[in-house]
Specification:
- It contains 18 helices and 16 strands.
- It has 459 residues and is an alpha/beta fold.
- The strands form two sheets. Strands 5, 6, 7, 8, 9, 10, 11, 12 and 13 form a nine-stranded parallel sheet that branches. Strands 3-2-1-4-14-15-16 form a seven-stranded mixed sheet.
- Helix 3 runs parallel beside helix 4.
- The radius of gyration is 22 Å and the shape is globular.
- Zinc ion binds next to strand 5.
């Protein structure tokens, strides 16, 4: 716990059971903890409330969540906004599913009014599920992408996003000229990258090798290198049939990853969704270049794509975190994604601690944003959620009095959006239940005398 009081900034203390990952196997744990947030949304201190209360720190406002959990918000490393209308439509593997369900749904985003409606719904649902940062694929439409950015900007979500690019072998109504695709991407990047103190960040988004020409990929690599802090996101080796098509299309490449590498698309801030069918050399290339993987277990189940080589990814020290891949995965809730990540590994238990890390700090590390988000620590931005597992039916009433590992376990194996009490991005609530308001009122009355004495201490 460190604290540099900025004289002018008024602090809010969020009281509750603060749990925040440090590594895959360790976390900080204050069961009567406090998260102090300044007016800029930066965390001023994290620690036991009893200790902070005794210190010189002047607290302006208290929101008391009792025994409820205060956790870093979830980071969903890969999901598709236009596919939100298609969740739960099963029956086919990747390439057939794209043709039957996904491409028609994406084509509908040529209609700006429709694009706006779905974007509002999508970003509200992310907040309701406790996801504070989504790495999002919209569609090829520049206008719909602009609307998606505007919607996230207005609603307070944190996003990494960029217009989808497709200039080869795509349905006619979703196909573009590569020069137009590059120009529109550049314009959107200039308009949105870094918006609101880097709350919105741009990702250049060639969909996957199958719908990309060599020109598109090379042009994208050049663009990506021109704009500091931007991302490159695409799909990689998700499905065996897809891998075969890719290798026929680019016969000179050593592997699917090598197609991207050969066109300059592998490096820091490159994010590859799925990455199931990789060999050791591919893992080494990702690791050595600081590139990252969005592991999408629910989607890999749903589309019967295959099993992510989790152990090999860990051993290769590749940066990777979890993702819902809506609508490849049917559920936006990162609780479900965490559960599927361990269910999917038949010979491996991934512990609740590690799953918690994978859906928070690991995502920030994959995005090279671990200095700013992903865990609750002084100096980081206050992206956090309040979780109450007892809001879900079937969870034992006294769960919040159990050891922290057991609370995390119940949350992960039984969790859904009902457990989320509120969601904050950089100290601003973007989702609140009645319970949040109730807790705040309670704090104002019950802790009033305490506040008085705190004010007096400060003089
Ligand atoms: N590969 C290329 N496009 C897609 C997509 O929309 N979803 C998934 N799961 N894989 C893809
Ligand atoms: Zn995807």
């Amino acid at each position: 716990m460190t604290y540099e009081p900025a004289e002018s900034s008024k602090l809010t203390a969020y009281l509750g059971h603060v749990v925040s990952p440090i590594s895959p196997t360790t976390y900080v744990d204050y069961d009567q903890g406090a998260l102090l947030v300044d007016e800029e949304g930066v965390i001023a201190a994290v620690g036991p409330w009893a200790q902070i209360k005794q210190s010189e720190i002047l607290v302006e406002r208290i929101v008391d969540f009792g025994k409820r959990l205060i956790l870093p918000g979830f980071i969903d490393l890969h999901l598709h906004l236009p596919q939100f209308t298609q969740t739960g439509k099963s029956g086919q593997t990747l390439l057939g599913w794209l043709q039957a369900n996904i491409f028609p749904a994406e084509a509908a985003f040529s209609d700006a009014a429709y694009a706006g409606r779905i974007a509002s719904w999508f970003f509200d649902e992310l907040a309701r599920n406790g996801t504070t940062l989504g790495v999002v694929f919209p569609t090829i439409h520049a206008e719909a992408t602009d609307i998606a950015f505007k919607t996230a900007a207005a609603r307070g979500n944190r996003v990494v996003m960029g217009k989808v690019m497709m200039d080869f072998n795509a349905p006619e109504n979703l196909s573009e000229d590569f020069n137009v695709s590059l120009q529109e991407s550049e314009q959107l990047c200039k308009r949105w990258h870094g918006h609101d103190r880097d709350r919105l960040l741009y990702a250049f988004t060639p969909r996957f090798a199958l719908t990309s020409s060599a020109n598109l990929m090379r042009g994208t690599a050049r663009l990506w290198s021109r704009f500091d802090g931007t991302y490159l996101q695409t799909h990689l080796a998700e499905n065996k049939e897809e891998v075969d098509v890719a290798r026929h299309q680019f016969p000179g490449a050593r592997s699917y990853l090598d197609i991207y590498d050969g066109h300059g698309l592998v490096g820091k801030r490159a994010l590859f969704a799925h990455s199931i069918y990789l060999d050791q050399r591919d893992f080494d290339v990702l690791s050595e270049n600081g590139a990252a993987i969005a592991h999408c277990p629910s989607s890999n189940f749903f589309l019967k794509s295959g099993v992510f080589p989790f152990k090999r990814a860990m051993e290769s020290r590749v940066r990777f975190g979890l993702a819902s891949d809506i609508a490849g995965g049917p559920e936006m809730s990162m609780f479900k994604v965490m559960k599927d990540a361990t269910y999917m590994q038949f010979e491996l238990f991934i512990s609740p601690r590690e799953l918690f890390y994978l859906s928070t700090l690991a995502g920030a590390e994959a995005l090279q944003l671990e200095d700013r988000i992903g865990s609750l620590a002084a100096g980081k931005e206050a992206d956090f959620i309040v979780v109450d597992p007892t809001r879900k039916s079937g969870v034992v009433e006294h769960i919040l009095s159990q050891p922290t590992d057991e609370i995390l376990s119940a949350m992960i194996y039984m969790g859904d959006d009902r457990m989320i009490v509120s969601t904050y991005v950089r100290g601003v609530p973007i989702y609140e239940t009645d319970e949040t308001v109730f807790r705040e009122n309670l704090a104002y009355t019950d802790s009033f005398s305490e506040r008085e004495s705190l004010c007096k201490q400060k003089g």
